[in-house]
Automatic annotation (TrEMBL):
Stretch list, region Disordered: 215-239
PANTHER family with a match to the protein in the record: ABC TRANSPORTER ATP-BINDING PROTEIN, TAURINE IMPORT ATP-BINDING PROTEIN-RELATED
InterPro entries, per database record: AAA+_ATPase (IPR003593), ABC_transporter-like_ATP-bd (IPR003439), ABC_transporter_ATP-bind (IPR050166), P-loop_NTPase (IPR027417)
PROSITE patterns reported for this sequence: ABC_TRANSPORTER_2 (PS50893)
SUPFAM superfamilies given in the database record: P-loop containing nucleoside triphosphate hydrolases (SSF52540)
Lineage of the species this protein comes from: Bacteria, Bacillati, Actinomycetota, Actinomycetes, Micrococcales
MF-aspect GO terms: ATP binding
Pfam families: ABC_tran
Residues of the ABC transporter domain: 6-237
Protein name: ABC transporter ATP-binding protein
Domain of life: Bacteria
Alphabetical list of Gene3D superfamilies matching this protein: P-loop containing nucleotide triphosphate hydrolases
UniProt entry keywords in alphabetical sequence: ATP-binding, Nucleotide-binding, Transport
Length: 266
């Protein structure tokens, strides 16, 4: 794919199970253009987080390659910024110091890191909470803080694992709108795992559907609807993609094995 920042090529990985190694990823191919937003969906437990871990360099695949900007970064951590399902905020640090941690882990001194992330706190609506502890924040603000810490690392690629999964529906909707608007300004290259197909079509330029375990890319659905998009009133294109993804997932009563008419671009 032209100007793909991230390329995942034929990635295979087996993980230990009680009865021996179990194949979890079975030839995953993915291309993510620079400045685009990709959402990864798939059946529960199929290997979405595992795939993100491979892209983040936290897991080395048994076979295949991860290329970032054309460089082989297979099994090399620290090249992409990764946000785990759990926000992993440190309770003994203030919000400011949690966000600054994204830079401190790269060797930036705490005082300098604090100065550098102050603008980010303002942009993420966290300025009034800079000195608060994470336990004092609402769920939505915690996720903003975790996202700010991820962005603060200044990496080309952001990997977000179910960032809104633990939030109530209303907060989730607010954060989706906020993320869409913030992303439109920055155009980070994002790969985000989500279980929420509507969220995926509201945010993404492409929705990648994984098969059941062992996972491979079952379909790639481009979402061409203009932005900004309304999160609860998707346009015709987004509705068609949502229907196609849900059908592929078997959520509309059609088996996962059913041929998919979406464009498939492994
Ligand atoms: N450290 C590990 N050791 C062994 N097996 C693992 C490990 N981590 C995950 N698995 C297994 O790998 C498979 C894929 O897990 P993974 O968390 O990647 O799926 P997922 O699609 O992200 O799940 P969910 O939809 O529930 O978030 C599961 O069967 C899981 O039990």
């Amino acid at each position: 794919m032209a100007d793909a920042l991230l390329q995942v090529r034929d990635v295979h990985l087996a993980l230990p199970a009680a009865d021996g190694p179990r194949p979890v990823l079975a030839g995953v191919d993915l291309a993510v253009p620079r400045g685009s937003f990709t959402c990864v969906v798939g059946p529960s437990g199929c290997g979405k987080s595992t795939l993100l871990g491979v892209v983040a360099g936290l897991r080395r695949p048994d076979r295949g390659q991860v290329l970032l900007d054309g460089c082989d970064v297979t099994g090399v951590p620290g090249r992409a910024a990764w946000m785990a399902q759990d926000d992993l905020l440190l309770e003994w640090r203030t919000v400011l110091d949690n966000v600054a941690l994204g830079l401190e882990v790269q060797g930036v001194r705490r005082r300098d890191a604090r100065e550098r992330v102050r603008d980010l706190l303002v942009e993420f609506g966290l300025a009034d909470h800079a000195d608060a502890r994470p336990s004092e924040l609402s769920g939505g603000l915690r996720q903003r803080a975790a996202l700010a810490r991820t962005v603060a690392q200044g990496r080309d690629l952001l990997l977000l694992d179910e960032p809104f999964g633990a939030l109530d529906a209303l907060t989730r909707l607010h954060l989706q709108r906020w993320l869409a608007a913030t992303w439109a300004q920055h155009r980070w290259t994002v790969v985000m795992v989500t279980h929420d197909v509507r969220e995926a079509v509201a945010l993404a330029d492409q929705v990648v559907r994984l098969s059941g375990q062992p996972a491979r890319v079952a379909a790639r659905h481009p979402v061409d609807d203009p932005r900004p998009r309304h999160p609860t009133r998707p346009g015709a294109g987004a509705r068609a993609v949502e229907h196609s993804v849900l059908t592929g997932l078997g959520a509309l009563g059609v088996a996962d094995a059913e041929p998919d008419r979406a464009r498939h671009d492994p």
